Amino acid sequence: MEKVIVNLPSVEAVKAFTNIILDYKGDFDLLQGHYAIDAKSLNGVLSLDLSQPMELVIHTDSDVTEIVSAIDEFIVK
């Protein structure tokens, strides 16, 4: 399990992010406040407050380093 903070400030960013995540096997959850949303669900992600950062929790047997690298532009540093 890996956790990173991501920022998805626009609908275009959400679309790009979910398209990347869909390429990987595993569960990807976005947490914001009391909400936990499937990061592969475009509608689910759009239901969150896009003006605030969110925590991405990655549950996969795949190479997490590759996934984090693929979404690097969305990670809050």
Fill in the keyword field for this structure.
globular, 4-stranded antiparallel β-sheet, 30% helix, 77 residues, alpha+beta, single chain
Reconstruct the topology from this structure.
Blueprint lengths: L1 E5 L4 H11 L5 E6 L2 E4 L3 H5 L7 E6 L4 H7 L7
Walk me through the structure.
Helix content is 30%, strand content 27%. The chain contains three helices and four strands; from the N terminus they run E-H-E-E-H-E-H. The chain has helices at residues 11-21, 42-46, 64-70, and strands spanning 2-6, 27-32, 35-38, 54-59. It has a four-stranded antiparallel sheet with strand order 1-4-2-3, with no helix packed on it. Strand 2 and strand 3 form a beta hairpin. The chain is globular, with a radius of gyration of 11 Å.
What is the molecular shape? globular
Strand content: 25-35%
Structural class: alpha+beta
Order of helices and strands: EHEEHEH
Write a concise synopsis of the structure shown:
With 77 residues, this protein is α+β, with helices and mostly antiparallel strands.
